[in-house]
Protein: Putative gluconeogenesis factor
Amino acid sequence: MTADDKAVAAGASNDRQQPSIVALGGGHGLYATLSAARRLSSDVTAVVTVADDGGSSGRLRSELGVIPPGDLRMALAALSGHEPARSGAGGTTHPDVQTWTKTVQHRFGGTGALAGHSVGNLILAGLTEVLGDTVAALDEMGRLLRIEGRVLPMSPIALAIEADVVGLEADPRVSRCIRGQVAVATTPGKVRRVRLLPSNPPACAEAVEAIDRADLVLLGPGSWFTSVIPHVLVPDLLAALTETTARKALILNLAPEPGETAGFSAERHLHVLSQHAPELTVDDVVVDSGSVPEGGEREHLHRAARQLGAEVSYADVAESGTAIHHAGKLAAALDRIVSLAAARDRQATPGRETTSWQ
Structure:
């Protein structure tokens, strides 16, 4: 166990109650957030993007008409019971689930019809057809993997992403419309704005309910235009994020992504989020201390954060030598911002009881 894990575990042993945490995102970014959040609580709900149109997910979406299952599968694996829900704090280990988790994540090789398909994607697609409902299928696989939290799609229907991209024409001022998550994520141009198709899609009702009852809501990291911003383009999800009394933390990426955010500063990430959802506010912006140098860049980031109503929290949250978030370090960083907020509340209202989430 790392020092960060021990710090989280030490505080967790004194909990009076666990926080209800909701994490929104997709792909590897959401996997990292969930791996951190489960160290703070076993009451973790993942709300996952449903616009993937590539690889195994894209094939199943096209052939079967199902919600793309890949990002949902990864979220299930991140919360599966093969690891303690709360590191060092009495979490229950389920060795028998380890084989199932590995199998769910396994991808077929070869050159036949199954080549490239993830086993978990096929299981989710099959469960959806048998049960007639994506959420029911996710809950059933969650029971198989002994998940204490829940994995939900952000919308009950498959969505598409469309982007306005500049830099693809001779005239740099001319934008081109690019459609599809994979196309947007890999475009050599600069993404200016994204939309969902159909526009104003419905939100998953259970996801809205989870945000309403949450104590802590996490957004990011991940592909900014295709995994993070889509959540605020679903009207009922944005309304829930705007109205919730939960503390909201935005977790920034460790580095710009080729294609989507090449050349973006940390400040620029906040600006484009605000452009897509001007009414959205957050409480904290979590930034890796090594990814934003001290000086002018941090000053610009602080100004952008204030426009969101947020404070910036710097911490070492990266796997050494990589652009990947370290689950234990990120958990410790989130624990610190919540603990500091609770301490400020106690000082502002003497005598007020505040539940510790450490």
